[in-house]
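Supplementary Methods. Inverse-folding protocol.

Structures were first reduced to a discrete structure-token string of length 314. This string, shown here, constituted the complete conditioning input.
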């Protein structure tokens, strides 16, 4: 039972008060319990009338003469559910106020109606082995010298003219093993630098990358990036224009990074955030359960044990 925050006694204390009233009298028991004589008389009267639990009673009135007609409320809900009318139209038809219709629809879960047509679900796919396809993407992050409003909720605290960093991410389509780095920009030179670092990381895990998938950003469409892929013998797949879900694994990986690393802690500065990234990536790959890998860390799909301390921290 939830006791009111301003209640002076719990049911156990009320039972003790009743016993003291019977033993030493009403006035003395009330003074010893720190309550008024009126309160002590109330709980003693309820006990005498057979209320042995001495719980708080509901504050709901016995009668509500101005309560809205239940039949009208049901009709309003039916109009909202079947004809998808606005609150104003429903109130006009049924004879209720707009606020009453709004409260009833909120309580019934009809405040926000589902779309008439469900959005088409893109084709789901997963490569059969690690290294067949590597998803690449980038995300801009603001530099800061003190925590900003995203974590403090105080928009007066920010670092003016601090500039940006570029979070480059890579994730293997089959195993979901990820790799990320914070670089200065999103230029083709940075994209090539990151790709080489990612390939070295996956090679250390025994994974040989065969193809990469990117969006149509200028860095990935550059001649420098195309030349590097050709020299490495990697196939380049691009997403359809304005269709980010094609590269959905990288998009989802970025969301996880932002929620669990970038904005999960109040970092003193962006430098501290950058220093934390390798530690979080190690946790993501070797320890964090992943829904796409049956609740196990991504490296388990590479035949590794996520709890191997020597492999993870040498």
């Amino acid at each position: 039972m939830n006791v009111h925050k301003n209640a002076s006694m719990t049911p156990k204390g009320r039972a003790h008060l009743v016993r003291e009233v019977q033993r030493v009298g009403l006035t003395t028991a009330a003074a010893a319990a720190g309550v008024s004589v009126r309160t002590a008389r109330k709980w003693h009267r309820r006990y005498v009338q057979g209320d042995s639990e001495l719980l708080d009673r509901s504050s709901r009135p016995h009668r509500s003469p101005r309560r809205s007609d239940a039949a009208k409320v049901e009709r309003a809900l039916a109009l909202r559910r079947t004809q998808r009318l606005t609150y104003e139209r429903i109130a006009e038809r049924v004879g209720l106020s707009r606020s009453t219709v709004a409260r009833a629809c909120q309580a019934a879960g009809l405040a926000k109606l589902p779309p008439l047509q469900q959005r088409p679900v893109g084709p789901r796919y997963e490569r059969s082995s690690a290294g067949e396809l590597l998803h690449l993407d980038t995300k801009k992050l603001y530099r800061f010298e003190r925590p900003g409003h995203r974590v403090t909720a105080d928009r007066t605290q920010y670092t003016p003219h601090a500039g940006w960093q570029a979070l480059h991410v890579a994730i293997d389509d089959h195993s979901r093993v990820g790799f990320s780095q914070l670089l200065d920009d999103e230029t083709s030179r940075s994209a090539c630098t990151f790709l080489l670092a990612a390939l070295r990381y996956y090679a250390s895990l025994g994974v040989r990358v065969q193809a990469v998938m990117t969006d149509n950003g200028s860095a990935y469409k550059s001649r420098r990036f195309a030349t590097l892929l050709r020299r490495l013998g990697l196939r380049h797949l691009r997403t359809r224009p304005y269709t980010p879900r094609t590269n959905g694994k990288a998009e989802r990986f970025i969301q996880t990074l932002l929620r669990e690393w970038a904005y999960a802690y109040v970092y003193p500065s962006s430098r501290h955030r950058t220093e934390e990234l390798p530690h979080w990536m190690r946790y993501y790959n070797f320890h964090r359960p992943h829904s796409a890998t049956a609740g196990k860390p991504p490296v388990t799909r590479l035949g590794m044990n996520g709890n191997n301390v020597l492999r993870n921290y040498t």
